[in-house]
Write a structure and sequence with these properties.
The complex is a heterotrimer of chains A (509), B (154) and C (319). Chain B has 154 residues and is mainly α. Chain B contains 5 helices and no strands. The mean pLDDT of chain B is 86. About 6% of the residues of chain C have low confidence.
Chain lengths: 509, 154, 319
């Protein structure tokens, strides 16, 4: 497919009109708000607003939906940083560094970096989408059951990196999480496992309520006990963009994570949550200061946020060029295309190449709009952190419950949220890291279903796992990253306990 | 942390054992060798292994970190337990009572627990928060909240 | 049990009273339609298009909510358990008749109040364009000559397409391996990528890839040829007497007042007949097959018996 420069320019002209720009602004603003609300994901945001686009011309509708998509991906980081509630699953990795930064009084710095990283990732994703769609989509099609299994294993190797200070406890969390992920229908035989006869359990514990419970509600329990002892958080909120030093410091991670994010987004069925965690693990392994991760390291924040926004560009690639959605959000977008009378895929390139280029253009413009609206919003959003904790903490609890309920309008999910909140609190208290559970819930079903699928295809012959180059490379990478991180983890544990000792000595003196 | 680690490890072993025991009741796939119980068995087994290591480490005195023990007389602990109870009540009454009353009562109560006494503050703020949340979810996003006792008026 | 049925009765009465008070204005707030399948799938797209067309006849916003999981069990149960005030409508699908024989759900279609059938789509056997066979017979012969090589993807274990593929294989006496995916879309993607040999899903779900020249349809399991691809022969024409359809329809929980039900039915029937929906259905290659509530109820009864029998013979039903 030849790249058509003049059409590209004409498309930018078409998109760069007040009408379309306004629609993108609306989409981005709605997306940021939806993304920042716990429980409302980018997928849900797009699905909710699809009906608003009925009867509008294709370009306007699709631009708005793309705006929501990109906005929500960024919006998730706002609540992740400020109130330890990942607004979307893709922002779960952002919590790990963003919230400790905010606790340290660096909310402004964290928010500015999250916005810039989102913008940077989004632009990279849109660039790759514009110029390398055919190439990337043929790569995406290579992914069959074996490759998905290998990708899941590679993703799971990140667990070591997010294990906090005890690898053993991290592993226990991970295997506990994987066991939870096996609740529900067996993906191959359909046998209901560990459901205790409850229909709500047939699909396993609902993901969003689990996520909100583990992070937000557990922190509520933590917070109420401390009232009076901790002083109100201070925050320096005079920042709209990260300082030049911060950008330079994170630049390497921004670039790498954006590319990783785009590619993972392009793989059908793997979305922003996986991209963010894999990039985060990657950043930690290659960082000069891995021991700072988990305590508010801006590198980790930059990499997870750039990855999840790059992911949206990546996920559009197979959607447009193959008619195959790259993640859950683009699956909804596929429906929106069809309702517009457009069938994404090779036919779209043949018959409506103008629309394809206009989508490229509006994807790119959406990133800039997101940057400006985000900058305008930072101050407003960041004020949240200055709210009196005695008001904020109960409000977070209510908002968490509402978010959990809204997903499926199911009271069962509210109980799930509370149960995981209690579990999360107990685990935090005794030093069991929470994020391995999350990663296990995201990747466990992917690993199991695809391993079993591969076994069905090969009639039980395990050699199929080593018959495909991409899978072998991924599994090799998983082993290497596992080895490196375990080695690194030992060092980190040693450095951390050293620091603790020094601290104790200092306190005594 | 030593005792806590031993308890944690024991709990992990229990969960792992339960998973494996449940797995024995699942149908076996003869052809593929790996059926529904394959993954749970491996995971349960590994959970048991790591839990055992944790216990052994704890017994050898290698536990890391410290935990402040709970004391019921402690104000923080009391507040934690009250919050827990309030949270459970919140979940139970959410559906029958409806979101708006549940949320207002919960917020008022919790703000009082957390030390706010100004009557104006603890009456007006919860209502405003609740209303804002309700408007965004119910009206803007058309996501229905439990209406409960107010079903007729909303 | 007596207490329970009394409670249900009281609840229905109370709900009825509420609805009566709200009746004058029905619908005075947005109506929710539960879709038991994921956003972007065949069911979802159909439901959204139909609901969009129904909005102006109902005079209210209609929100499609995807309550997914449990092979459709969650969504169907949510429809069944919804408040019978007319503000929750649901799309019921074939799985409502295939879940009970597996002993997975404590309800059957009899626990719903069917409104109308919308479509009934036959399964289509689809393979890659470059496959060495171009007829159903050829495919089956190839499968016989190469035992253990043919893999057919379906949308979930025990799902409609799993049963359809099983039935076709049983009728022709070939051994194939059924590979369940998490929905039809991933199965089709996997076929395009060459990871499996065939899929047995509806025409609508493979249409895009067939028109793009990546896949070809070998045959459709219906009585008549498909409207979009009239060149594709049916299974029966090719000497394999298999007919298997999935169907979709609308239902409400038991206990919705008759006049509210009539309003919903009316709005959706008008939407169904509207030119924009008919055009959409043609674009999406849906096999529209409207039935009113009475006919749909009869159909459900017969379909339930048929599906149960097939599942028993395939060993998919609970023993």
């Amino acid at each position: 497919m030849e790249f058509n420069w003049s059409l590209m320019l004409a498309s930018y002209g078409t998109v760069f009109t007040p009408g379309v720009l306004f629609i993108i602004c609306v989409g981005i603003t709605a997306g940021i708000i939806i993304g920042s609300l716990p429980g409302l994901t980018a997928t849900m945001g797009v699905a909710l607003l699809v009906p608003l686009t009925f009867g509008r011309p294709p370009l306007e509708s699709l631009s708005m939906l793309i705006g929501i998509y990109c906005g929500a991906m960024y919006g998730g980081s706002i609540s992740a940083i400020l109130i330890r509630t990942p607004g979307t699953p893709a922002a779960a990795a952002t919590v790990l560094e963003g919230y400790p930064m905010a606790r340290r009084g660096e909310a402004g710095r964290a928010m500015a970096m999250a916005l810039f990283a989102s913008f940077f990732g989004g632009v990279c994703g849109a660039l790759i989408m514009t110029f390398a769609s055919p190439l990337v989509s043929s790569f995406a099609l290579e992914f069959g059951p074996v490759e998905y299994f290998a990708l899941a294993i590679f993703g799971l190797s990140v667990i070591v990196s997010i294990s906090g200070r005890s690898l053993i406890k991290g592993m226990m969390s991970a295997f506990f999480g994987l066991l939870i992920s096996s609740i529900g229908f067996d993906p191959i035989s359909g046998f209901p496992r560990f459901t205790f006869g409850m229909m709500e359990m047939m699909e396993g514990p609902p993901f969003i309520p689990t996520l909100i419970g583990l992070f937000a509600v557990s922190e509520v329990f933590n917070e109420v006990q401390k009232t009076g002892q901790i002083q109100q958080l201070k925050a320096n909120l005079n920042q709209y963009l990260p300082s030049w030093a911060d950008i330079k410091y994170c630049f390497k991670h921004l670039c790498r994570s954006s590319v990783i994010g785009t590619f993972i987004g392009a793989i059908p069925g793997a979305g922003g949550d996986i991209a963010a965690f894999i990039s985060y693990g990657q950043a930690k392994r290659t960082s000069k200061h891995p021991e700072r991760f988990g305590h508010g390291e801006i590198e980790g924040l930059a990499s997870s946020e750039s990855a999840n926004n790059a992911c949206s560009g990546g996920a559009m690639i197979p959607l447009l060029s193959l008619g195959v959605p790259g993640d859950a959000v683009t699956a909804v977008l596929l429906g929106a295309f069809i309702i517009q009378g457009l069938q994404p895929g090779p036919m779209l390139y043949k018959e409506h190449i103008d629309i394809v280029y206009q989508i490229f253009a509006s994807m790119m413009l959406a990133q800039f709009v997101m940057l400006f609206i985000g900058m305008a919003g930072i101050r407003l959003f960041a004020k949240v952190i200055l709210v009196d904790r005695a008001i904020l903490t109960p409000a977070i609890f209510v908002l968490s419950m509402v978010g959990a309920f809204a997903m499926r309008s199911n009271v069962f999910d509210v109980y799930t949220t509370l149960a995981f909140g209690i579990l999360g609190y107990v685990m935090m208290r005794y030093d069991y890291p929470l994020s391995p559970i999350l990663l296990a819930l995201i990747l466990g079903p992917m690993a199991e279903a695809n391993l079993r699928r591969a076994m069905v295809i090969s009639a039980g012959d395990p050699s199929i796992l080593f018959s495909r180059p991409i899978a072998v490379v991924l599994m090799g990478l998983a082993v290497v990253s596992l080895a490196l991180s375990i080695k690194g983890q030992k060092k980190i544990e040693a450095r951390l306990s050293e620091m603790e000792k020094e601290f104790e000595v200092a306190v005594k003196e | 942390m030593k005792v806590a680690d031993i308890f944690g490890g024991a709990f992990g072993i229990l969960i792992g054992a339960f998973a494996i025991w449940e797995g024995t009741k699942m149908p076996v796939d003869v052809v593929m060798k790996i059926g529904p119980s394959f993954f749970p068995n491996i995971l349960g087994g590994l959970l048991i292994v790591f839990s055992a290591i944790l216990i052994i480490n704890a017994l050898r005195g290698r536990s890391k970190g410290k935990v402040e023990p709970y004391r019921l007389s402690d104000k923080g602990t009391q507040r934690g337990l009250i919050t827990l109870a309030a949270g459970i009540v919140f979940c139970i009454v959410l559906d029958p009572l409806g979101f708006i009353p549940t949320s207002i009562v919960f917020l008022t109560f919790m703000m009082w627990v957390m030390g706010k006494r100004s009557p104006l503050l603890i009456v007006v703020t919860p209502a405003l928060i609740t209303l804002a949340v309700w408007l965004v979810f119910e009206k803007v996003l058309s996501l229905s909240m439990p209406a409960g006792v107010l079903a007729d008026y909303l | 049990m007596k207490l329970k049925s009394m409670l249900v009765g009281v609840a229905a009465l109370v709900a009825g009273a509420f609805s009566v008070s709200a009746m004058a204005a029905y619908p005075d707030k947005p109506v929710t339609v539960i879709c038991p399948w994921t956003a972007g799938g065949g069911t979802d797209v159909l439901l959204r298009a139909l609901s969009k067309a129904a909005e102006k006849h109902l005079g209210q916003t209609i929100n499609v909510v995807n309550q997914t999981g449990g092979a459709g069990a969650i969504g169907h149960n949510a429809i069944r358990a919804a408040r019978p005030d007319g503000y929750t409508v649901g799309m019921i699908t074939f799985e409502l008749n295939s879940l009970p024989p597996q002993g997975l759900v404590p309800f059957t279609w009899k626990d719903f109040d069917p409104l109308m059938r919308i479509n009934s789509d036959p399964a289509a056997l689809t393979v890659r364009k470059d496959a060495p066979y171009s007829t159903v017979r050829g495919f089956m012969d190839y499968a016989k000559e190469h035992p253990g090589e043919i893999t057919i993807g379906n949308s979930a274990p025990g799902s409609v397409w799993h049963i359809a593929a099983g039935l076709a294989a049983e009728k022709t006496g070939v051994q194939v391996k059924h590979v369940p995916f998490d929905g039809a879309q991933p199965a089709v993607t996997s076929l395009v990528g060459g990871h499996i040999k065939a899929v047995a899903v509806s025409v609508a779900e493979v249409r895009g890839q067939v028109q793009a020249g990546n896949l070809k349809i070998l045959g459709v399991m219906s009585a008549d040829r498909d409207k979009i691809f009239p060149d594709v022969p049916t299974f029966k024409e090719q000497g394999v007497d298999v007919q298997f359809y999935t169907w979709r329809g609308l239902a409400v929980p038991k206990g919705v007042p008759a006049n509210v039900k009539a309003k919903i039915s009316d709005a959706y029937k008008k939407a169904f007949d509207s030119p924009e929906f008919q055009e959409f259905a043609a674009k999406a290659s849906l096999n529209l097959a409207y039935q009113n509530a009475a006919d749909f109820t009869k159909f459900l009864d017969q379909n339930y018996k048929d599906v149960e029998a097939v599942m028993k013979s395939l060993g998919l039903a609970k023993k």
